[in-house]
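Page 47, continued from p. 46.
Same chain as before, 435 aa.
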Amino acid sequence: MAWASRAAQRSCRGDERLQRFRPHARHYYLRRMMHSWPGDISRYNTSREPIPMPFFASASGSARTLTASRFRLLPIVLLLVSLCACKGGGEGEAQAKDGKENKPEAIPVEVASAAHRPIAASYTGTAPLEARGESQVVAKTSGVALNVLVEEGQQVRAGQPLVRLDPDRARLAVAQTEAQMRKLENSYRRSQQLVAQQMISANDVDQIKYDLENIRAQYRLATLELSYTTVLAPISGTIASRSIKDGNFVQINTPIFRIVDNSKLEATLNVPERELVTLKAGQPATMAVDALPGKTFTGKVDRVAPVVDSGSGTFRVVLAFDNGGVLQPGMFGRIKIDYDQRADALVVPRIALLDDENDPAVYVIRNGKASRVPVKLGYTDGAWAEVRSGLKTGDRVVTAGKVALREGSEVQVISADGKAVAQAKTNAQPKAGKQ
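Result:
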């Protein structure tokens, strides 16, 4: 069956050629194949080698034999047509699938509702704490430290002895001046008796009198030097530092102790001049320190400088805080001064604001899509920001995921634990017609 073998080979070659053609050219190729059978070689065959005739028609080339051969090839042609249809359908399904995949997916976001709550206008700043009372104790005389009476961290009161220095030299000086003073006192008494008898001139009496006053001053000075051998606390407070030990020689005017009064602590803020009209003495203040996380301390504005520094454009605000036995000088404090309050303000979380200070706005969820809404802000208090206009109570604003949003983006609201939240969609119910 040579004709069947050649027909099969021709159909395979046609199938391979169909695979190389685009879908819009396949029908033209099929038409050409259907008209290129051996009976019409003289019109449609363009190949260089002639196709032999015998397997389609008889030697006489009768029309009846040629027609019968064409009907034998009809199943092959139908098979090729069905193959083209299947490939066309597959490409259509692929295009539809690609279109479905290109559809943008909903962006997961977290939201919070605008609500009413109290909010306060405040000024915040940072400053180290300082003790209101602090004293550097120095030696007023020189000598060997015989006995150091206090240690670091010990509470002392004003006038309490801190250290005793060697007093021997000072005692001898007191005794020497005291003897000279006694001698001049006796001389002065005798001179007064002699001047009454006119046995001594008045000038001699005045000279003895002045010498006596001088020696008395020296005696008081020597007594004062003797008192300096016992170093006393100038203020009440806590011994913050001690720089001497027993047996050390102490030079005059040498710092030996540092005392701080921790009962009242102060913090000084350098505030910009635009806040001069808002900050007043007596306003309440709160403070948090890094060394004591989770705790807050209350205080007040103690005094406000009446002038502005022309160099920095700031003025000094001094705040006072009660120690409470916890705070220490040198701690770093984060201070907030409340100067106005609103009891019922519409607020949103501060993290919902977009990063544009000149044009504040938020993303509001409406009908499952994100809408950028400009807002007018009022006071900001910690994690909350007051909205003066642009929103109403209950509006849902995006707090997380807003970076990926654009106007009209599809969104999917998720909870804080990452689970999707079903969005309630309000659908208009059709009204029932009259029966």
